[in-house]
């Protein structure tokens, strides 16, 4: 068996027994109340009856306290020998208190109470193992703590050796054979549950991985067009509901076709990966913002809850960062390295009343950037101040 599964089985089998404690309290509490009522009605309220009732409450309370304090340790696999001994002791005490009460009840009228007490006491011992079936150790300490004191009393106090022998024989057969079959079934059930959960988790992780791969551009490992088309709808709707600005930056690599034609497609792919690597280092700041590759050399940055001036600054940062990457491009008319042209649009423009119109505005701005000489950022005409050009002028290049 897988060691991890074995560890998890060990954890769960004890947690299940702890979870069964409320049912134990209900059943044994009801039985204890019945026994006390019968005893008081038939023999009156004696000191032994009061002592037994107090002991019963104490051992039930002790088990509750111990279970509650040790549950985190079982959950975290940090149990030590002393903890296990304490846990088993609480199981043993419950069995012993029942055995002690049974002996006291028999002593009130041995001939009259012997048979009935033996029946319900052994029934309690055999039936009680159901709540401890997950652990052979817990089962045995509970069972024998209940049965052995009765056996000793039958042998020494009542001199009923045959009855004592029958109790021991039945107990050995029950504990060593039948309960082990039940225990193995319980462990098998827990193991199957764990394996099913692991399978479901693996399927979920596989589905998540498949979804992630379906949304990822294989070459650049950025989000792909499929992801962009799906996500932009949600981002757009969220921005409208919250009355927030939504900006997009549409940009592509300048003169990428000559780059591919002269350096080769392998070098072109390497260049795209280098550009994507630089993009991944740029903090778009806004929540739900993302980069995506939407064409061969075309990319987009989606910026929810971002003002136009901030989007322009980010676009300029992208432009400078790509240029500073210094990816050689001798066949470009605007620089000797790879550069980009970018167009910025915002959803609050009167001309951008839909996603399509906003993207059209960004595309027009990108066209203006290219017409203006490339390697620059332009904004949609609807946003451009009338007294200023509609594009951001090229900043001075570092020497």
Describe the model.
This protein has about 400 residues and is α+β, with helices and mostly antiparallel strands. The chain has a six-stranded mixed sheet with strand order 2-3-1-4-5-6, with helices on both faces. The chain folds into two domains: about 5-200; about 225-390, 2-Layer Sandwich (Alpha-Beta Plaits), CATH 3.30.70.270. The chain has helices spanning about 5-20, 20-45, 45-75, 80-110, 110-130, 135-155, 160-215, 225-240, 255-265, 265-280, 310-325, 355-370, and strands at about 245-255, 290-295, 300-305, 340-345, 375-380, 390. The two termini are about 65 Å apart. Helix content is about 65%, strand content about 10%. It is rod-shaped, with a radius of gyration of 39 Å. Helix 4 (about 80-110) packs parallel to helix 6 (about 135-155) and helix 6 (about 135-155) packs antiparallel against helix 7.
Uncertain segments are: 386-399
- Mean model confidence by pLDDT: 87
- What Rg, in angstroms, do the CA atoms define? 39 Å
Strand content: 5-15%
H-E order: HHHHHHHHEHHEEHEHEE
The general outline is rod-shaped
Q: Domain count, please report it.
A: 2
* Separate helix tally: 12
Largest sheet: 6 strands, mixed
Task: List key phrases describing it.
single chain, 399 residues, alpha+beta, Alpha-Beta Plaits, 2 domains, 6-stranded mixed sheet, 12 helices, 67% helix, 8% strand, disordered C terminus, transmembrane helix, EC 2.7.7.65, Nucleotide_cyclase, transmembrane
